[in-house]
Write a structure and sequence with these properties.
- The structure is a single chain.
- It contains twelve helices and no strands.
- The chain has two domains: 128 residues, no CATH class; 156 residues.
- It is mainly alpha-helical.
- It is globular and about 80 Å long.
- The longest helix has 42 residues.
- It starts with 11 loop residues before the first helix and ends in a 21-residue tail after the last helix.
């Protein structure tokens, strides 16, 4: 018999019951490891199939833009195949006219980029010597020449650069052709694909899958339309600001600003910095400061007013989420990964929101609002 001062022996059930958090943590941990492993495997497979996955994604983007006018023609009793062909031919015509109007000025202005950059280097060198830093011109010149020699060495070391560039160009061309062909069939046979997919699902799941797919499609279309609209507004306003301030390379700045809209936050920062630097080289500090103010105001206007108005409730991603997925996509797959990361995250968020709403609609535990105290407020009240 144990003495009164000795602790009683704990049975296995009693001892395990004192550490419920350990069991819960272990269960959550292995589930997270399984999910992470599945995501990693999916990422590796998608990276291996990049030449197929990226054209499919681009084809979906093209389809979201061309499907509505094709359906409009169908409602006017135009056959589906003919409506699709007319929309694609009209799109090719519009794109060709835009390219013919933009490319020659861009090439002409880019031919002046070398002298502009050399002049920028001279201006920076003069500022380092004659400005508040008061550096020795010989040291600055030696450092500048060293950078030029290093760039030349790197260019000489990349002996396979021409071959790699040609291969990349062929891959881009093949991917573009594949995207156009896929987009044509997506627009033409979208309902056939939809019926085929739903027919292979249980009857009680078809309504949910159809609703989730429609929400994902609506989100993708809203993202594409919104990014293009915001890019067009920023390109016009910032291009006009650079031109009025006396900056050169206005057309390349506008093209870069439009393309940067498809890389949220990061693209806007890069395009704005380029616009300011171009103006600084051509017009000096005062005009560059004016363009910087315009860039900040335009991007703030887009973030606070234009983006919520265009995207609506279909694309709701916090800036933190945008930065994380944009960075992750860039790290995993370069510029292509950064391009597809945000719309993919928006679609996943929309489908996940639909699933969550259905799971919690009739659950009283999720119906109450959460009161979150403000910073510095006593949460015990």
């Amino acid at each position: 018999m144990a003495s009164p001062n000795e602790p009683a022996n704990e049975g296995p059930t009693e001892g395990a019951g004192r550490l419920p958090w350990l069991r819960t943590s272990s269960d959550v941990s292995w589930r997270l490891l399984v999910v992470f492993g599945a995501l990693l495997a999916a990422g590796v497979v998608l990276a291996r199939l990049q030449l197929v996955v990226v054209p499919i994604f681009i084809a979906l983007l093209i389809t979201t833009a061309l499907a509505p006018p094709a359906r409009w023609l169908e409602r006017r009793r135009v056959p589906t195949a003919l409506a699709t062909a007319l929309i694609f031919l009209g799109s090719f015509l519009v794109v060709g006219l835009v390219v013919a109007a933009i490319v020659p000025p861009v090439i002409d202005e880019f031919s002046n980029l070398g002298p502009t950059l050399r002049q920028a280097g001279n201006d920076i060198e003069d500022w380092l010597v004659e400005g508040p830093l008061g550096l020795d011109r010989r040291d600055v010149t030696d450092y500048r020449d060293g950078i030029g020699d290093r760039i030349a060495d790197l260019a000489g070391e990349s002996s396979g650069g021409v071959v790699a560039g040609a291969r990349t160009a062929l891959e881009i061309l093949a991917g573009l052709v594949l995207s156009i062909v896929l987009a044509f069939f997506f627009v033409k046979d979208a309902r056939t694909f939809q019926r085929w997919g739903l027919s292979h699902l249980p009857v009680d799941r078809r309504e949910f899958v159809g609703t989730a797919a429609a929400k994902a499609w609506h989100t993708l279309g809203n993202y594409l339309t919104g990014a293009a609209t915001i890019g067009l507004v920023e390109a016009v306003v910032i291009g006009l600001a650079v031109g009025i301030a006396g900056g050169s390379l206005v057309v390349p700045v506008m093209v870069l600003t439009f393309a940067a809209a498809f890389f949220p936050i990061v693209g806007a920062i890069v395009a704005g910095a380029v616009a300011v630097m171009v103006t600084f080289v051509s017009g000096g500090f005062g005009p560059a400061l004016a363009v910087l103010v315009v860039v900040i105001l335009v991007q703030q206007f887009d973030t606070d007013f234009l983006a919520p108005l265009i995207y609506g409730r279909a694309v709701r991603l916090h800036p933190v989420v945008v930065l994380v997925v944009l960075t992750a996509g860039g790290v995993l797959a370069g510029i292509v990964g950064a391009f597809v990361a945000v719309p993919t995250a928006a679609v996943v968020s929309a489908v996940g929101s639909e699933i969550w709403q259905r799971r919690t609609a009739d659950d009283p535990r999720f119906s109450a609002d959460i009161a979150i105290p403000a910073p510095g407020e006593d949460s015990s009240r």
